[in-house]
Amino acid sequence: MADLNESIEESQENNNLPKVFLHGPPEFSFILQPNPSHNFHILNPSSLPPLHQFLSLNPHHASSIAAIVCTGGYTVNADVLQLLPALRLVCTPSAGTDHIDLSECRRRGIQVAGAGNLFSEDVADMAVALLIDVSRKISAADRFLRRQVQNVSWNFPLGSKLTGKKIGIVGMGRIGSEVAKRLEAFSCMISYNSRNKKPLVSYPYYSTVLELATDTNVLILCCDLNDQTRHIVNKEVMLALGKGGIIVNVGRGALIDEKELLKCLIEDEIGGAGLDVFENEPHVPKDFFSLDNVVLSPHAAVVTSESLMGIRQIVEQNLTAFFSNKAPITPVI
């Protein structure tokens, strides 16, 4: 009987707390584990069922959800916002925000909090790792050796050195700056393209990606995905990069015209690609799998044990600050 009374009291207490909905896949529940704050009540703590289904089963919650925590691939667009009249905060642990309609949030006065600078070093590490892997054919060499039998000639294609290469970085923000810092150690010649020239950045600036590709050996994509950057790397850019050129993408898959990339790789119009992101995730074109000049990663640039601990803290801190009538600690808008 005592346990029942405690359960009723806990339920009543939760009903008086601001409501937060987890909008993501089942495994997304880790984001507020193991000890979420007592300042808010988590709805859908196992990330099941999806939002629309949850609201159809629990329509009374539609007018009480004050915040959503969402991950990439789970959109918060105008249709979702229309369902949640009490929503005042969208919080995402993702490095990007292309899954959130920022204009509509701004119009409705809804705050958006992101991951801040948490993932910049991890993503930069992955960008450089992919570049080294593609240029020195590390994964391809591993597959080559595993297929061999004893006493077979090691007739393996030559790789390309990284030292001294001309590197073009698309998006000289937090991640792009970290990539540049790492590549300086390889005596690479760095230039960049961004929405605007950065007054405090000393690297040469190119106003278009096409011009950048024409004058570099490698393109590394670190920019956001939006209407202006979708397919910013098209066939013309790939051909300008040239037969020995390498493309590394740690931004978003749709920054590249994926069909044209496959054609250029298969026809040896470019030298190789290192891809952590894909245009229609989680689906990856199977034609990539047979290409030895491609290194693939399952959108894992941000996933380290350290970053997962850090993002839990940031999400909790953003929610706690918001529900204490303070500004989020990593605001987007």
UniProtKB/TrEMBL annotation:
GO terms for molecular function: glyoxylate reductase (NADPH) activity; hydroxypyruvate reductase [NAD(P)H] activity; NAD binding. GO terms for biological process: photorespiration. The gene is 25501000. Its EC number is 1.1.1.79. CDD domains: HPPR. Residues 66-332 form the D-isomer specific 2-hydroxyacid dehydrogenase catalytic domain. It comes from Medicago truncatula (Barrel medic). One of its GO terms (cellular component) is cytosol. It comes from the Eukaryota. Keywords: NAD, NADP, Oxidoreductase. This is glyoxylate reductase (NADP(+)). It holds the Pfam family 2-Hacid_dh. It is an enzyme of class 1 (oxidoreductase). Belongs to the D-isomer specific 2-hydroxyacid dehydrogenase family. Residues 128-301 form the D-isomer specific 2-hydroxyacid dehydrogenase NAD-binding domain.
